[in-house]
Design a protein that fits this description.
A hairpin with a 5-residue loop joins strand 3 and strand 4. The protein is an alpha/beta fold. It starts with a helix and ends in a 6-residue tail after the last helix. It is elongated and about 110 Å long. It is built from ten helices and eleven strands. The protein has a six-stranded mixed β-sheet, with helices on both faces. It folds into two domains: 115 residues, no CATH class; 180 residues, P-loop containing nucleotide triphosphate hydrolases (Rossmann fold), CATH 3.40.50.
Length: 377
């Protein structure tokens, strides 16, 4: 469409030429290294052995000279022993390569283990059956799902984004996380998901990982997989067999709700590989929303899940979520969906947050200017 084929061809040719040149350099270096290891060190060892025993051969009075054959026998014996010593010295010199390779592998494995240990979220404390959930200072009978206390989040360079974040989330509550661009909304969700470690504070989950869903702005799709595999991701038949037993009619119904019925006109299309390859960003987000409807988690954390979809569909979808009494924590810049939420968690830009109930649409409109920024599409 943009007639950029000549430029793309030139870039590909340049890249191929760079790879070819580097490959030739590596092959030359490998040849020189193998030549040094195989021939130079070996013959240097033999030469050193021959040089070491040559004076004894020249001296015809070594030991008790009995016959003219003794110098020759001594020469062959010394040659055999000292050549073996030279080969052993060569192996000793080359052992640093094996040690360096082993050290590199051990370092990478140790870094991987350390990263896995530090990124694993702490196990949530057992929830008390008699505990009452407290949201915004009011006691309710709904079970407590998430508690955040004095949470602080910082960038990798140490600059602090959030501090002293306190809120609780109960079943049936839908919390809209709002604030201006750059105040740390996505950073808060990354900390809740365990992607970013918390600088301080405590995050306590009262719902198992299998019963909560994190939906990023760019949902991941399995390349070359079937439509059913992408709809049920990250579940597999081995990890969550109950989810794979969901009827095909439910999967087709979820696709119809999110506006992707054309992808699967029949149940057979659910098992066709590669149907999700090449989907637009908006269609990819609709696949993620279908996962939410299919899985029906106890708590879903959504990071601008409809940023590439038209506002009319977003309002219709969250109206459906409210009708199903889903528990959500959602980041969105569009103010017209606040009517489908029960609470707002507003980040003020200074690192703090305030949780308040959504009393009326009028109140939401009056504060919309400092809470929401409608992106251009």
């Amino acid at each position: 469409m943009l007639r950029g084929a000549p430029l793309e061809r030139q870039l590909m040719d340049d890249a191929a030429a760079a790879i070819s040149s580097r490959t030739n350099q590596l092959n030359l270096q490998r040849f020189l290294s193998e030549s040094l290891d195989t021939y130079v060190l070996r013959f240097c060892g033999i030469l050193a052995a021959f040089t070491a025993m040559l004076p004894a051969v020249i001296d015809s009075h070594v030991g008790a000279a009995a016959s003219s054959e003794e110098p020759t026998e001594y020469f062959l014996t010394c040659l055999h022993l000292l050549v073996n010593v030279g080969m052993a010295l060569k192996d000793l010199v080359l052992s640093h390569k094996a040690a360096a390779t082993t050290r590199g592998l051990a370092t990478r494995v140790a870094a991987l283990v350390e990263a896995l240990e530090t990124s694993a979220p702490p196990a949530p404390p057992p929830a008390s059956p008699a505990a009452a959930a407290v949201v915004d200072g009011s006691t309710t009978g709904a079970p407590l799902l998430l508690r955040v206390r004095s949470l602080a989040v910082a960038l990798p360079d140490g600059s602090e984004l959030l501090k002293d974040i306190d809120f609780e989330l109960c079943a049936g509550h839908r919390v809209l996380l709002c604030g201006a661009n750059g105040v740390g909304k996505s950073s808060l969700l990354r900390a809740l998901a365990g992607v970013w470690p918390a600088k301080a504070g405590d995050i306590s989950w009262f719902v198992p990982p299998s019963d909560r869903l994190v939906l990023p702005q760019r949902p991941y799709l399995l390349p070359g997989a079937s439509l059913k595999q992408n709809l049920l991701y990250p579940a597999s038949e081995a990890s969550e067999p109950w989810l794979w037993r969901i009827s095909e009619s439910e999967l087709l119904s979820a696709l119809e709700i999110v506006g992707l019925a054309q992808l699967a006109p029949s149940a057979a299309a659910l098992h066709v590989a590669g149907l999700c390859d090449g989907l637009s960003p908006g269609e990819q987000q609709r696949i993620g929303l279908a996962r939410l409807l299919i899985r029906r988690p106890a708590l879903a954390v959504l990071d601008e899940p409809c940023s590439a979809i038209d506002p009319a569909f977003e309002s219709k979808f969250f109206e459906e979520c409210a009708h199903r009494q889903m528990t959500l924590l959602t980041v969105s810049h569009r103010r017209d969906i606040s009517q489908y939420y029960t609470h707002k968690l507003r980040l003020d830009g200074s690192g703090s947050a305030a949780l308040s109930p959504v009393d009326s649409k009028a109140n939401d409109d009056s504060s919309a200017s400092d809470e929401f920024v409608i992106p251009s599409v």
